[in-house]
Design brief:
By secondary structure, the chain is mainly alpha-helical. The chain has one domain. Helices cover about 65% and strands about 0% of the residues. It starts with 6 loop residues before the first helix and ends in a 13-residue tail after the last helix.
């Protein structure tokens, strides 16, 4: 093994740092109309500082340690996901906008579903590496993953948070596909998942309203999307200038989180949008390069899972804000307001750095090396 920080890992850290700094600045500009705009900035800044410290630590800790603690990490995550669902925990998990997605203990404000993204990447990578070729079967291969992933997805869904539940399942699916699960199993599960998703949309009036307005472009129901698109249009080639955006003035709800990409489009223009898209593209490319040359299957699958968690969330957030998907509440990785999501993203970078430092001469390892 080589124990050096190759150019891919250096560039990965640089990309993550640029996205984080740009995100903190952008959310501060987007939150200027909130009562405590500086509070948004300071809390996110503290989260970034803590995340940086954990990134450095994760980059130095052998990534195989995550394999050893995959089951305990899964257990802790399940407990965290259950706490907001209990009827007697409203004091530490109050309802916000009709959902209970956070655990608040003094200064600690934790979003368990963000932790679940990291946990799923670690746990699925561990079990996929352990099963090896057996993963191509259904009963002994895919079925155990379905039980655990289904449980985690259901707990997130009960918050309720359909978009995050789907994202977590997609992360697990990408790792399983990388590990060699059969296409026919994905096709069957995809069909079943599609039917389930339609049912979940139909049973909740607000979900059906969002989907119907997305398909029919109805005015009032598409207010957020219309404002988001107006932001991109107002920005033009170079934007209206940092902090000069107007949509955050009570026009675009959650401009600092769910629709931050639109705020960037308004203030930084087409050029800023392209830069952000390229940065996420480079992040994904580097993460998958690290995965391809990881020294063992666990490292490969873990790198794929962590990279997918960031890349998929970024793509889905951007797709929503430009009208390619119905409105959801997915945050922009590294950039949207939310300390849990920011810290988890930076921890993921640290683990990717450690995997990158442990590669075999920068080449794909042979079977004997695995």
């Amino acid at each position: 093994m080589v124990n050096e920080m190759r150019w891919e890992t250096r560039l990965l850290v640089l990309v993550a740092a640029v996205l984080t700094v740009f995100g903190i600045a952008s959310l501060y500009a987007a939150a200027t109309m909130e009562r405590n705009a500086f509070g948004f900035f300071s809390r996110q800044f503290i989260g970034a500082g803590l995340g940086l410290l954990i990134l450095v630590a994760a980059g130095r800790v052998d990534y195989h340690l995550w394999r050893r603690f995959a089951w305990p990490l899964l257990l802790v995550t399940v407990v965290l996901l259950i706490i907001p669902l209990l009827p007697f925990t409203h004091a530490i998990s109050p309802s916000r906008n009709g959902a209970r997605r956070w655990i608040i203990l003094g200064p600690l404000n934790l979003q368990p579903s963000e932790v679940a993204k990291f946990t799923v990447a670690v746990w699925v990578a561990m079990l996929a590496a352990k099963k090896g070729d057996a993963i191509r079967g259904f009963k002994q291969g895919v079925a155990p993953f379905l039980v655990v992933l289904g449980m985690i997805g259901a707990l997130i869904l009960l918050e309720p948070n359909l978009s995050m539940s789907v994202l977590v399942l997609l992360i697990g699916a990408v790792v399983l596909f990388t590990a060699g699960a059969r296409i026919k199993h994905f096709l069957m599960l995809g069909a079943a998942g599609g039917v389930a998703a339609i049912g979940l949309v139909l049973v909740e009036p607000y979900r059906w309203a969002r989907l119907r307005c997305f398909l029919e472009s109805c005015g009032a129901g598409n207010f957020q999307l219309d404002q988001a698109l107006l932001g991109f249009g107002s920005g033009g080639p170079l934007g209206v200038g940092f902090g000069q955006g107007q949509l955050k003035m009570q026009y675009l709800p959650y401009a600092y989180s769910d629709f931050l990409f639109s705020t960037i489009g308004e203030e930084w223009g087409f050029l800023g949008v392209i830069v952000i898209v390229l940065l996420f593209g480079v992040f994904g490319w580097l993460g998958f390069r690290i995965a391809r040359t990881a020294p063992d299957p666990f490292g490969q699958y873990l790198a794929v899972g962590l990279t997918s968690a960031v890349a998929l969330a970024g793509v889905l957030h951007m797709a929503v804000t430009v009208g390619l998907m119905p409105t959801t509440g997915l945050a922009f990785p590294f950039m949207s307001y939310g300390r849990t999501g920011l810290i988890i993203a930076l921890v993921s970078v640290g683990v990717l750095v450690n995997i990158g430092r442990s590669r075999v001469g920068g080449r794909t390892p042979t079977k004997n090396q695995r």
